[in-house]
Design goal:
about 200 residues; alpha+beta; four-stranded antiparallel sheet; four-stranded mixed sheet; 8 strands; about 45% helix; elongated
């Protein structure tokens, strides 16, 4: 019973964060971008897919409205669920826009994020290498985290020591390779390389 309650709470928390992301998006603000930090977006690659899915949801809502016009109670319930689904779909995109990857200032960690369900902090001193690498096929492998957008990743980070990644349902994994996508992968690779080299020079 406790496990069911925990899953329910995680689902509710996830959806509340999506709704909060809509507010941030409307206000043109981002989450977790400190002063002096550098943000790297990744949502551009999924925009067409998300809005295409949203369009399908709208068409489905209109179709169900016609089919259920003689059953007003059922029609109202289904319409409410359809509208909520559309809000969540847009919230997923808003979360991706407002929660970019962040390279924190003064030798701070690199945060690799994906909407509201992935947020991995990687200390610069643990980054052995960072390079641009376009991948469209990702097999689940122990010790690797693939944060794909539109089924692709464009940056690969290899670490000297593992970092923790907590999954959506609270399971903890140790990862030594992180692959992610960035709209400007070259800029992310350059920024991480420069920050890491600067940290090593100061050490």
């Amino acid at each position: 019973m406790r496990a069911v309650a925990r899953v329910a709470w995680l689902m509710v928390r996830h959806e509340l964060r999506l709704l909060a992301s809509l507010v941030l998006w409307a206000a043109r603000r981002t989450h977790g971008t400190t002063a002096g930090g550098r943000a790297f977006g990744y949502a551009r690659g999924q925009g067409a897919m998300i809005f295409g899915f949203g369009f399908v949801c709208v068409v489905e809502s209109l179709t169900m409205s016609v089919l259920l016009r003689d059953w007003p109670t059922v029609h109202h319930v289904v319409l409410l669920l359809d509208v909520y689904t559309i809000v969540i779909v847009v919230g997923l995109h808003a979360a991706s826009v407002t929660r970019p990857h962040v390279l924190e200032p003064d030798g701070g960690p690199l945060r690799i994020r994906r909407a509201v369900h992935v947020d991995v902090r990687i200390p610069l001193e643990r980054i052995a290498s960072v390079r641009r690498e376009l991948r469209t096929v990702h097999e689940r492998t122990d010790g690797e985290l693939h944060v794909a957008v539109g089924a692709q990743t464009s940056v690969t980070l290899r670490l000297t020591e593992p970092v923790p990644h907590v999954t959506f349902f609270g399971q903890r994994r140790e990862v030594r390779v992180v692959r992610c996508h960035a709209d400007d992968a070259d800029a992310l690779v350059r920024a991480v390389t420069q920050a890491r080299d600067g940290l090593l020079r100061r050490a």
